[in-house]
Amino acid sequence: MNTNEELSAILQSVMRNSAKAIKDKYYPHWHLAPVTGLLNDPNGFCFDGEYYHLFYQWNPLSCEHKHKCWGHWRSKDLITWQHQPIALLPDEIYDKDGCYSGSAVIHQGQLTLCYTGNVKFEDGSRTAWQCLAVENQQGGFDKLGPVLGLPDGYSGHVRDPKVWQYNDIWYMVLGAQNLDKQGKVLLYRASHLYQWQLVGELAGSYVGGLKDAGYMWECPDLFELNGHFILLTCPQGIKREQHRFLNSHPSAYLIGSFDYSTLQFQHGELIELDAGFEFYAPQTTLANGRRLLFGWMGVPDGEEMYQPTIANGWIHQMTCPRELHIKENKLYQQPVKELQQLRQNPAYWQGIADDAPDINGFLFELEVALFGSLTIHFSDTLALIIENNQAVLKRRSVKNGEWQSRFWSGDIKHLQILCDNSSVEIFFNGGAGVMSSRFFPSEEQTICFLGKDTINLTTWQLKNA
Ligand code: FRU
User: Where is the Glycosyl hydrolase family 32 N-terminal domain (predicted)?
Assistant: First the structure.
């Protein structure tokens, strides 16, 4: 397809299918989701002084992982978002098999995208180009072409540039795989965006004290927070443990120190970033001093293709925007305070959990102070069980109906839960732990509380955004 044919196919797809998606009972009321087709990673998350921009991996033509474009939304308040012209189409030889993930920076006053051009060959091999595109007068983007090819010693899996500036120098981290199939994060440096110099491996399998840590690290993001440095990464192929890293691909972080003079990163072990069933490829930005994050509420290669929304032509959504902090050397995530504007009709209740009133409908937020064990049933498909210093989230598999479990350990005193039709985000103890999950209940939409211990409950209905 040439560019015009492609645009017309996308327009037709949106016009034919979006009403069906938006009317789906599982379609979110205030989370970001595609109007049709498949959404995956958040891309190019940034703040230009007036607007937040969020781009996203989008296949507008079907619910498959193909034909990746960059969709674009912008917002002044992180709550109401407007569609912007589609930003990138895979219509050049250097990005013909997908405009893959990347980031955005403001360069010389212009919003500039740094993304991966993915190219596949007939023999099954692939290559990748790191490319630039710059915003034009119409709100679309003009491609400037590739600025970096594959480094020596690495496979065709090198992608997802996250670019930032520090003291007039540009830096970039890239997800990569070396020729021995070890996952790495590469660090680059540049004095302008067109000429990058490889510094070396920032982290990865057999780097910085880690042993085998997977065959490919995707979507890296390095930033400073409260005097520490955090590297977010999605290390594919790490070992599943009894209670951690149970998704087909996990999202994790390393915490430590990074020195801009030696460009060395010292860090500890990989820590899971979100213990739920669906969370991947998070990206952050710094806005007015706050470190904000969006994640994809999905994971690749799991049971995603069994999700029932595919029947209505759409799949996946973003997480809510979250703010990050560090307390006692641990990363905390909390829903941004702006989301409180969605709250209405607060209700308070205190007593034994068994006596608590049910909540009807799946568009609510709640906070619970706990004084012991508690079970919360979300209809017949999802249950949160808190006892013995552990939270277990159980969900029926969309593939075969069997119960599956995810875990978070800690002495849980407080819960904040955000629910939006077919998604739930559970924050433990002020964000020390998070579980993000989709769930697709049958007709009955009730939340009920079970347990012999006391709870203090605050609930709000949430408005549409
Ligand atoms: C992560 C990822 C990225 C890639 C993009 C393609 O979900 O695999 O590594 O750039 O998705 O859509």
Answer: 31-335
pLDDT (0 to 100) of residue 301: 87
Q: What is the pLDDT of residue 335?
A: 98
Q: How far is CA 177 from the centre of its chain?
A: 21
Tens of pLDDT, residue by residue over 349-386, are 999 999 999 999 899 999 999 999 999 999 989 999 99
Q: What is the position in ligand 1's atom list of the atom closest to the CA of 234?
A: 1
End-to-end CA gap in the chain: 36
Check if the beta carbon of residue 184 is closer than 8 Å to that of residue 171: no
Residue appearing with tokens 């799946």 = 362
Report whether 196 contacts 172 (CB < 8 A): yes
Using the structure block, give the residue that is written with the tokens 């560090």. 326
Residue ranges in 322-406 assigned as alpha helix (H): none
Q: Which residues are catalytic?
A: 41
Atom from ligand 1 closest to the CA of residue 65: 12
Distance 77 CA to ligand 1 centre (A): 27
Mutate to test the pocket of ligand 1, among 38, 41, 66 (most ligand atoms within 8 A of CB): 41
Cα distances from 6 to residues 2, 13, 138, 400, in angstroms, run 6, 11, 19, 37
pTM here? 0.98
- What is the identity of the amino acid at 214? G
Closest to 43 (Cα-Cα) out of 219, 254, 176: 219
User: Which residues, 6 or more positions from 380, have their beta carbon under 8 angstroms from its beta carbon?
Assistant: 396, 441, 442, 444
List, for residues 113-161, the tens digit of each pLDDT value: 999 999 999 999 999 999 999 999 999 999 999 999 999 999 999 999 9
Instruction: Give the whole-angstrom CA distance, residue 69 versus residue 7.
Output: 11
E-strand ranges in 192-288 read 197-204, 216-225, 228-236, 252-259, 264-267, 271-272, 280-287
Helix (H) or strand (E) holding 249: none
How many angstroms does the Cα of residue 68 sit away from the middle of ligand 1?
9
Q: How far from 254 is each of 37, 251, 268, 329, CA to CA, in Å?
A: 33, 11, 6, 11
Q: What are the angstrom distances between the C-alpha of 430 and each of 207, 244, 329, 391, 394?
A: 32, 20, 15, 15, 22
Q: What is the dihedral of CA 176, 180, 182, 184, to 10 degrees?
A: -40
Average pLDDT, the chain: 97
In the reported structure, the alpha carbon of residue 359 is separated from the centroid of ligand 1 by a whole-number distance in angstroms of 37
- The dihedral built from the CA positions of residue 328, 332, 336 and 337, taken in this order, carries a sign that is negative
> In sequence order, what are the beta bridge partners of 390?
387, 409
Query: Over 90: is that where the pLDDT of 1 sits?
Result: no
